[in-house]
């Protein structure tokens, strides 16, 4: 048996070990997912990291099937001619009948071959296919759910492609189709309904109902067996999606999931016990070059610092050498991913740093894709100002260096008063004036479409982290996945992670999270390379604890005022039951005295002192709620004590 198969399968429970190699000569594997060359969430990472190993094992008999997106194809896919006559006839046949099907190579490690189906070009058949879905599976899809409509189009196109491939192939190969998540599940159901000779596998990486229940402040894990799944799905207006997911789970020849906790969840919510648990993998080879870690961290941190210099121009009154970079990343599920807990913790950290007069600064990044229409003008201006200052400094440096060189060449020390002329000083003064800024640095790097109701921005307004000079914790909300081609922060996610100091992932619903494991892998590598500076102690839950734990109370997570009852953008924001919260009177000196008595001050490392403006002015009792992505209200944050007092009211 191949080494790659042995390593990947040895830890899977329920599988018998076999001695002979699997015959791949007349077997073709199609892996179907909505996130093929289309980054939405964690499934993109699953496919990306397994592509090389799977491709090495299956060779030219492995294809990925996904949706055609113009952005994805332009940046991630190289379009090619189909390599086999049967596949070429399949694509030509579908294209001649009104579909648009593309073939190419996904430009990731392993370079897997991909078949991309344009769902938009087949919208003419949507109503007919929805009727057929109702007649065949008794699943009705409402017209207003665009995502579900796309799933119907994608499912029918996938089934059409698989059926056409079998019809055009004279050798009649054994076809295995592996479907990921409910968005691809319609194709699996149709393969079974049309009795195609295809072996089907369905993998759920998380359940739809689980996401919605956890986002709705439900004690999920202690009541898994008690939920009326039809009622809960109907109340959240996702019954049709739930039916798609459940039908795919029951129709599949093999049903798998990615973790034991999700297997139990699927058994109760989807009413089928997974046949096998297939944990997601992590390519640890990239973390093996331990001697390079320190240099790579310094290089990546320098890229982040360049962005920070531009973003905070005019308010760069903190020492970058005493700045820590924290981040949280993932799908924009405010409560499920723990963004509410993280923001509350940052507010408390900011208060403690200010009360204790710390010179340490924390810059916290929120990398969560949301609905935007463009970059924030103030953010773009900041990067332009930074670049202009750099160009000005280089111009002056070159003139200074040339005069210094000419002076030394003739054997005399330069006259420092003549090294810079009036034009140089004028140029530098203009550069200084360009850094003047009346507003605070923006919190959000993009223009949000739902600015006034966005949960992160709403919570930031409530806790008052406006990136003021007095704040020791700065917040940057980047509502877009990171890319090395971005004009703002031109780094990939892995490079960004390498440059940060701490990743925070207080998720409540996390069937399998890649982000914490990336952090653990890097931490483990650092501990092995530099044991004197880093230690790594893996945490394992006690056997008696299991997976059952309650949702935290309403304190410290954000109150219902800023928490959605379902995943973000699926329902309107809840209104507070008792009307607007009354503002509690706050005396800064009195509260600071209480904290010095009751809170143990952290032991800050003693370093050389540097000048830092902490802005010891009185706080204002008003917090701006104006709907603005840049949030430039000159109001300073209330203390955590005041925030908790408001929540108790």
From TrEMBL:
Q: Name one GO biological process term.
A: heart development
Q: Which GO terms describe its molecular function?
A: alpha-1,4-glucan glucosyltransferase (UDP-glucose donor) activity; glycogen synthase activity, transferring glucose-1-phosphate
EC code:
2.4.1.11
Q: Which reaction does it catalyse?
A: [(1->4)-alpha-D-glucosyl](n) + UDP-alpha-D-glucose = [(1->4)-alpha-D-glucosyl](n+1) + UDP + H(+)
Per UniProt, the ranges with Polar residues bias are 609-626
Ranges of Basic and acidic residues composition bias in the record: 593-606
| UniProt keyword annotation of Methyltransferase present | no
Name the segments for region: Disordered. 542-649
Q: Which InterPro entries match?
A: Glycogen_synth
A GO cellular component term found in this entry reads: cytosol
Stretches with biased composition (Low complexity): 627-640
- Give UniProt keywords alphabetically: Allosteric enzyme, Glycogen biosynthesis, Glycosyltransferase, Phosphoprotein, Transferase
Fill in the subunit field for this protein: Part of the GYS1-GYG1 complex, a heterooctamer composed of a tetramer of GYS1 and 2 dimers of GYG1, where each GYS1 protomer binds to one GYG1 subunit (via GYG1 C-terminus); the GYS1 tetramer may dissociate from GYG1 dimers to continue glycogen polymerization on its own.
Instruction: Describe its function.
Output: Transfers the glycosyl residue from UDP-Glc to the non-reducing end of alpha-1,4-glucan.
Name listed for the protein in its UniProt record: Glycogen [starch] synthase
């Amino acid at each position: 048996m191949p080494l790659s198969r042995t390593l990947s399968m040895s830890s899977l429970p329920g599988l018998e070990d076999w001695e002979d190699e699997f015959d791949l000569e007349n077997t073709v594997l199609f892996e179907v997912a909505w996130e093929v060359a289309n980054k939405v969430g964690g499934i993109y990472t699953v496919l990306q990291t397994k592509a090389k190993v799977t491709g090495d094992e299956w060779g030219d008999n492995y294809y990925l099937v996904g949706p055609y997106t113009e952005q994805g194809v332009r940046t991630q896919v190289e379009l090619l001619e189909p390599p086999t006559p049967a596949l070429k006839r399949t694509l030509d046949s579908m294209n001649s009948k009104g579909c648009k099907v593309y073939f190419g190579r996904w430009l990731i490690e392993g370079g897997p071959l991909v078949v991309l189906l344009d769902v938009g070009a087949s919208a003419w058949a949507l109503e007919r296919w929805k009727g057929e879905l109702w007649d065949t599976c008794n699943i009705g899809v409402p017209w207003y759910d665009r995502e579900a409509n796309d799933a119907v189009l994608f499912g029918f196109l996938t089934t059409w492609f698989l059926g056409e491939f079998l019809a055009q192939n004279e050798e009649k190969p054994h076809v295995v189709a592996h479907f990921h998540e409910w968005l691809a599940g319609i194709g699996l159901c149709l393969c079974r309904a049309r009795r195609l000779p295809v072996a089907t596998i369905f993998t759920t990486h998380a359940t739809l109902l689980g996401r919605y229940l956890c986002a709705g402040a439900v004690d999920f894990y202690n009541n898994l067996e008690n939920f009326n799944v039809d009622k809960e799905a109907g109340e959240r207006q996702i019954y049709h999606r739930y039916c798609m997911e459940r039908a795919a789970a029951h129709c599949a020849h093999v049903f798998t999931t990615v973790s034991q906790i999700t297997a139990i969840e699927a058994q109760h919510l989807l009413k089928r016990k997974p046949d096998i648990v297939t944990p997601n993998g992590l390519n640890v080879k990239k973390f093996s070059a331990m001697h390079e870690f320190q240099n790579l961290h310094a290089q990546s941190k320098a890229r982040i610092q360049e962005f920070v210099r531009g973003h905070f121009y005019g308010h760069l009154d903190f020492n970058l050498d005493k700045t820590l970079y924290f981040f949280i990343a993932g799908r924009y599920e405010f409560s499920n991913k723990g963004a509410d807990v993280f923001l509350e913790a940052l507010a408390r950290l900011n208060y403690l740093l200010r009360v204790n007069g710390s010179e340490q600064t924390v810059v916290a990044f929120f990398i969560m894709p949301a609905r935007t229409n463009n970059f924030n003008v103030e953010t773009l201006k900041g990067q332009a100002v930074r670049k202009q200052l750099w160009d000005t400094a280089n111009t002056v440096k070159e003139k200074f260096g040339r005069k210094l060189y000419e002076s030394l060449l003739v054997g005399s020390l330069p006259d420092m008063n003549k090294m810079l002329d009036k034009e140089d000083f004028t140029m530098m003064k203009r550069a200084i004036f360009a850094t003047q800024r009346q507003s605070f640095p923006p919190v959000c790097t993009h223009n949000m479409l739902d600015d006034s109701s966005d949960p992160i921005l709403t919570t930031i307004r409530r806790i008052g982290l406006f990136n003021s000079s007095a704040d020791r914790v700065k917040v940057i909300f980047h509502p877009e996945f990171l890319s090395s081609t971005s004009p703002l922060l031109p780094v990939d996610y892995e490079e960004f992670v390498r440059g940060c100091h701490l990743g925070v992932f207080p998720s409540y619903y996390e069937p399998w999270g890649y982000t914490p494991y990336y952090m653990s892998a890097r931490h483990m590598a650092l501990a092995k390379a530099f044991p004197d500076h880093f230690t790594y102690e893996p945490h394992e839950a006690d056997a008696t604890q299991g997976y059952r734990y309650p949702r935290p109370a309403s304190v410290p997570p954000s109150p219902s005022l800023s928490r959605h009852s379902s995943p973000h953008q699926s329902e309107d924001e809840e209104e507070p039951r008792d009307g607007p919260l009354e503002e509690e009177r706050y005396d800064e000196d009195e509260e600071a005295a209480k904290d010095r008595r009751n809170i143990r001050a952290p032991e800050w490392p003693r370093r050389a002192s540097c000048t830092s403006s902490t802005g010891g002015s009185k706080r204002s009792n008003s917090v701006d709620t104006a709907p603005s992505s840049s949030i430039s209200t000159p109001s300073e944050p209330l203390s955590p004590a005041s925030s908790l007092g408001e929540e108790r009211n």
